[in-house]
């Protein structure tokens, strides 16, 4: 029987780049808010997991009916994503064990498949460091000169897009985020904090359609992805019965 993970879902962003009338996690996608889709995918993969949901303290849109988990708690969001995740880890101090696996997943990634969730979980079961879903860069990469022109073409070999979930043992993740804060490092994901400790997180190849809804056009793309996934049953495969 495999280990049931903790889930941390940072959902306290304001969606500034989306520029909508509400945070993007509450925008409608196939008739339901983005947040409800994301939590449903996580629940399909890990029905017995314990969830920490990071929400803005001034959130006026959230409805607990969208949370399918039996064991969940609401945690106040912080100023940045990393602060929201840190608040979640602090909220479960004393309950979570040092070696417990914590999977952190952006609420803004509703298209993650059950198959990828289960594969990541399995890949991290015995990994001494932890790791993340990631997709190899598929485009030619340009660097700008700061004035709208190309200054260089960067080799893409070995470059990956960091996706979520990202999963690490509770003790290691707490230490990594604490040290990153102490050193004033700007970390945009959990892996970069762990890297700053000198550790090498495992890259687990994930689907490129696990997109992060960020800009206005991403909402339409996510709707197309969900429709395409519904037409193919592959993402329902591999649900862990012990979860
Ligand atoms: N203070 C914050 C900022 C972000 N997030 C969450 O972190 C994830 C990734 O962040 P991003 O895509 O940047 O979301 P927003 O912060 O909402 O977007 P923007 O940067 O455009 O305002 C999202 O699930 C978002 O809700 C969070 O929990 N707390
Ligand atoms: C964690 C993340 O999704 C990895 O790609 C991403 O860094 C979060 O988005 P942000 O715009 O950097 O907050």
From TrEMBL:
InterPro entries: IspD, IspD/TarI, IspD/TarI_cytidylyltransf_bact, ISPD_synthase_CS, Nucleotide-diphossugar_trans. The keyword Nucleotidyltransferase applies. One of its GO terms (biological process) is isopentenyl diphosphate biosynthetic process, methylerythritol 4-phosphate pathway. PROSITE patterns: ISPD. It comes from the Bacteria. Keywords: Isoprene biosynthesis, Nucleotidyltransferase, Transferase. The record marks 17, 24 as: Transition state stabilizer. Pathway: Isoprenoid biosynthesis; isopentenyl diphosphate biosynthesis via DXP pathway; isopentenyl diphosphate from 1-deoxy-D-xylulose 5-phosphate: step 2/6. Its EC number is 2.7.7.60. It catalyses: 2-C-methyl-D-erythritol 4-phosphate + CTP + H(+) = 4-CDP-2-C-methyl-D-erythritol + diphosphate. Transmembrane segments: none annotated. The record marks 156, 212 as: Positions MEP for the nucleophilic attack. GO terms for molecular function: 2-C-methyl-D-erythritol 4-phosphate cytidylyltransferase activity. HAMAP family: IspD. Belongs to the IspD/TarI cytidylyltransferase family. IspD subfamily. Catalyzes the formation of 4-diphosphocytidyl-2-C-methyl-D-erythritol from CTP and 2-C-methyl-D-erythritol 4-phosphate (MEP). This is 2-C-methyl-D-erythritol 4-phosphate cytidylyltransferase.
